[in-house]
Design goal:
The chain has one domain (about 1-65). Helix content is about 95%, strand content about 0%. It has two helices and no strands. Helix 1 crosses helix 2. The radius of gyration is 18 Å and the shape is elongated.
Amino acid sequence: MPVIGSIVGAIVGAIAGLWTMEYRAKGDRDAATRSVHSYIGGVLLEMAIEMGAAVVVIVIFAWQAFV
């Protein structure tokens, strides 16, 4: 379970660090929270695009290898 804790810790640390730095720079909690929401949305979108590309690669490989 240390691996899971490390991954969760890295995610929570990145989000907390981003929020803290944005809050210190702008002094506005709402702006810092919006920045974190935008960051999370961007990361999730990037993950979805990367997963889609991986599925396309697997499908092309299976098509070429087995058909």
